[in-house]
Amino acid sequence: MHVKRRFYAQILLLPVVCIAIDTKYVDIYQNITIECPLNQSNGIMWERDTRDISEKPPFITLEDGSLFLENVTKNDSGEYRCSEENSAVKYNIQVVVKTPPPALPFYVHPSTILAYLIWQLNGTGGYPITFFTAEYRLMNESNWTSIAPTHLSPNLRRLEVYKLEPNTTYAFRMWAGNKLGPGVKSEVINTTLHIYTEKQLAARLLAGAQTFDTRIWIIAVAIVMGTLTVLGLGTCLLLYQECRTGVEDEQEVIELVPNIILNPGFEGNMQADQMPADENCNNETPVRLNNNTVVQPRIS
Ligand SMILES: *[C@@H]1O[C@H](CO)[C@@H](O)[C@H](O)[C@H]1NC(C)=O
Ligand SMILES: *[C@@H]1O[C@H](CO)[C@@H](O)[C@H](O)[C@H]1NC(C)=O
Ligand SMILES: *[C@@H]1O[C@H](CO)[C@@H](O)[C@H](O)[C@H]1NC(C)=O
Fold it and tell me: Regarding predicted confidence, which is higher, 289 or 9?
């Protein structure tokens, strides 16, 4: 294959008309040929949207004016522009290099003998995540222990690590994988909590007791006892009053009740004055009860 190598510096031309053309996807470590829509073999110029030209070795322009990128890495992702020499019209072609997943941000929430690993997805690299892997080791050892299973479900976001030692420092590392392979490993160091022995717990409780002021305790007891006494006396007084008024009212209550039941329309002036005895020696008047029953005077 005949390859023309051209060296172009980025020249700022004003005004520039940019026409977005296409997005090209390429897997990492592959080659890609980017075609320019200008249908001519000579005088095609390529440039990148980067300020640092020295970042990238000179582009390889093929015979037909296409750009050839060899063995691409993540850094080759970006916008490429082709144009005719001395033309203000540029064609933009976006290149996206697909990679294994980027580093997985995660944190460790330790307990005494277990720890939770909790993570988020920070991009997939271009292909869906197919697995997660988590490992741990003692800080002073070099062998990593895999947290089974080696390939965790891509839907998981949290994992428990068992059988850890209390008060011990561990290193944990995790990564995600897609069809291009395992991604960048990220590492977190954390220490498990220590277990208090019974002796330590007792010591802690006693430490609290020593600084406790007994005068506060006495005042508190006095306040509570005082309140209880006042409440008790009050209750007795109320009960005593209740009993006394109960005895006094009893008779009145007994007399009033029949009156109310027999004569709901009771009025004081309905009680007729004593009448002089009639020819039948009757000194009582007829009484009409509220159910219209007329009670006639007795005939003696
Ligand atoms: C990329 O192109 C080079 C030659 O330019 C070739 O040697 C290499 O095998 C190609 N790589 C792939 C993955 O096709
Ligand atoms: C990508 O670019 C960064 C800085 O921009 C550099 O540190 C890194 O080494 C480059 N990676 C590759 C694979 O060229
Ligand atoms: C935890 O470990 C450190 C040293 O690693 C030690 O100094 C400390 O006493 C331990 N604490 C407990 C409560 O065991």
Answer: 289
CA dist 24 and 66 (Å) reads 13
Cα of 151 vs centre of ligand 2, distance in Å, is 29
Which atom number of ligand 1 is nearest to the Cα of residue 30?
A: 13
Which residue carries 């009680």 as its tokens?
A: 271
CA distance 1 to 63: 9
Identify which of 292, 295, 265 has the alpha carbon closest to the alpha carbon of residue 282.
Answer: 295
DSSP secondary structure of 243-287: HHHHHHHHHHHHHHHHHHHH-TT--GGGSPPPPPP-TTS-----E
Residue ID of nearest Cα to ligand 3 atom 14: 194
Q: How far is the CA of 111 from the centre of ligand 3 (A)?
A: 15
Q: How would you class 94 by CB atoms within 10 Å of its CB: exposed for 0-12, middle for 13-18, buried for 19 or more? A: middle
pLDDT at 145: 93
Closest ligand 2 atom to Cα of 75: 1
| Ligand 3 pocket, residue 185 CB under 6 Å | no
C-alpha–C-alpha distance, residues 48 and 81, integer Å: 6
73 lines ligand 2 (CB under 6 A): yes
Pair 191, 197: CB distance under 8 Å: no
The pLDDT of 181-199, averaged and rounded, is 87
Q: Mind listing the pLDDT tens digit for each residue in 268-277?
A: 444 445 555 5
Tokens at 143, concatenated: 């062998």
Q: Which of 126, 245, 215 minimizes the C-alpha distance to 176?
A: 126
Q: What is the pLDDT of residue 234?
A: 83
Least confident range from 45-54, 127-136, 176-185, 212-221: namely 45-54
**d(C-alpha 204, C-alpha 275), whole Å:** 97
